[in-house]
Fold each of these.
Amino acid sequence: MSRKPSDDNQNTLSRRNFMGAVVTAGAGAAAGGLILPESARAEVLFPKDRSEFGAGGAANPGGPYRSENDLYDCEVEGTLPKDLDGTWFRVGPDPQYPKPAKYEHDIMFDGEGHIGAFRIKDGHVDFRSRYARTQRWKAQHAARRSLFGMYRNPTTDDPSVNGLSRGTANTQIFFHHGKLLAMKEDSPPVAMNPVTLETTDDYYTFNGGLLGLTHTAHPKRDSETGEYIAFGYEAKGLATPDVFVFSADKTGHVNWHAWIKVPYASMIHDFAVTQKHVVFYVCPLATNMSLINGTLPQFNGPGPHFAWDSTLPTWFGVMRRGGDGKDLRWFKGPGYMCTHVMGCWSDGDKVTVDMDGGESNQFPFFPQLHEKFDPMKGAGHVMRFTVDLKNKRQTTYNIEKMYPDVVGALSRQDDRYHTVPYRYGFLLSSDPADGSRWAMFDHSKRSVNFFGLGRDASLAEMTFVPRKKGAAEADGYLIGVASYHKEGGRSDVVLVDTQHLDAGPVATIHLPYRLAPQIHGFWVDGGDLPG
Ligand SMILES: [Fe+2]
């Protein structure tokens, strides 16, 4: 919940206001004595304590980035495969402006989406990064200050932005029907040019086919037809239990949709799509208007949209693809929290979904309604969920912890296997002795291999890159960012052969600076890119 500024904060604020006035005055002088309107006199100075900064600064390795960059022909150690042709995109929350003091403890997820693109071809790589020009970014850019209050809480916004999209486009990017879509799950996607990173549509609705107000950050591509399948939760407004689910053909034309309701409004960060079914996992990171309005007695003011309510069960909902949603069937389970789908498939009426998750809340930055946060219970493992729709009396789902000794989050797979049986999965893992590692699972053998660079390097989520068109499942490379604490967070991008994780990187792209924070990444084959 929002916290009252302490006396220390107020003292600090006074000092920062003074500094901000100096900065503003300096900018005015530099602009030839331009007199700024009162609304533009806000400070542009981020808190010194990056871990406390509420607009993205807590993201590893911390601090806002804010610099849009172009770097032609990056330095490469090792050898980029000559036949590797494509662009690796990454995105994360990068605060555009500091928030007012009363919101500076807001969570990192509320930074503006900053997209990075590594264009790899002929053994060379060029880097470009740009903010998504969301409606929010443009309004704040014009005003030279933060206008949107707390994470997913429009009751805290400046009145001047009423009616604008709050979307930050900071969570994941996806390429389909020639469009690079940058996504945040509280709003429609933003469309961008995949080469220039120019924003081409700040409110993309699939030519009006997206009927809900929201769109997930984790759409899927049908492994056989190439269709795009997505959904949006809270699709009829804040804290509503309504979900809009749809598919679009290769041209982006919406060719199926359905409206459903979930048992209660909560964070539905990802979903599972098989050849036959769509699966939603509803967990107790819940929301309601009392929380958003700040009328819950245990909190002081408006909340950051979600709170963990351990009294709620989880629900595993399965519906038929292509139907009207009336067949949706809910299976009940304990209060787990799962965020990302590793892989899934349908075998007749039996549905299997693998997700990373823990036995309680995994996001300590959201408040707990009933007990203290327990990091042990929140530790993530690869969990296998199964239901058999043929059994009409089954009311619960089955859970298996697949690899009890491996802890991690942000599970991925070879994206060509989104909707069909799969064998290999990936996880950003952590180990007390070895630090962050990329884990590669072979489910057929129940075995796991790791890649890591030791405790001095912090790895972000990886993306799988096929070795070539038609390569076997998971035959290729893992690509992702390594950041070095002892170098002020300076970043490399490493490329590792999935057949030889133990051999270290095939190539290391050295950046001369720290990269912007990242949540997810996405690979686009060069043959699919324009130009
Ligand atoms: Fe995600």
Amino acid sequence: MAERIEIIRCLQDNYAFLIHDAARGEATLIDAPEAGPILRALDASGAKLARVLITHHHADHVDGLAEILVRHPCPVFGNAADAHRLPPLDHAISPGEKLIDGTCEVFDAPGHTIGHVAFHFPALKALFSADSLMTHGCGRLFEGSAQQMFDTIARFAALPDDTQIYSGHDYAKANLDFAARFAPDAQALEARQAELPRLAAEGLPTTGTTLASERNLNPYLRAHLPEVARAAGLPGASALEVFAEIRNQKDNA
Ligand SMILES: [Zn+2]
């Protein structure tokens, strides 16, 4: 594989991502929370920034963009439906579209915001889901409905088990503590509870878990299971009702 994913920590708990294409000597940036760490990563690798893909309009995903573009002018891609509140776009894209010679699929991912999109790179087995599906959790419903986030996550659930999920924040510890209430796979929970402190001690990222691992731990991918419905206090309820209840309990946790 000529491509490599570099995870860049920004701000308090954000992640940005560089997909390095060694064959072309270029890189694709996913989100721009903060210029400094991203510029340093570009300097260190010597890569030419080929493009920036934006997942959604929140400040902690776009605030570093202008400064990055001064040093690395390149086209910016974002959802056409949100063009009015995103930084100026060179390519207003739409869910279902394919980018970068067909190597990247744009997924509609509303729920956290209405215009949120995710970027799937099938050959890299990587989904950049930002604040939709997150490590052991999902994003807060600022604009969308539980139904929208439920449908978003159902679309991701159809991806292959070995797909790595790159979310926009390091909320893994808090999300895992919460997920433990909803009958996760006991062995997977124990393993991850042991792993997270090690990652934290070494300053390693918590994002990039596989969909298979999330299916064992993430309550939003497990809302259809009877034991999860019982744990949520809604035995016999639909997967959507259980999903909405879990999200509601997290908001009030
Ligand atoms: Zn956000």
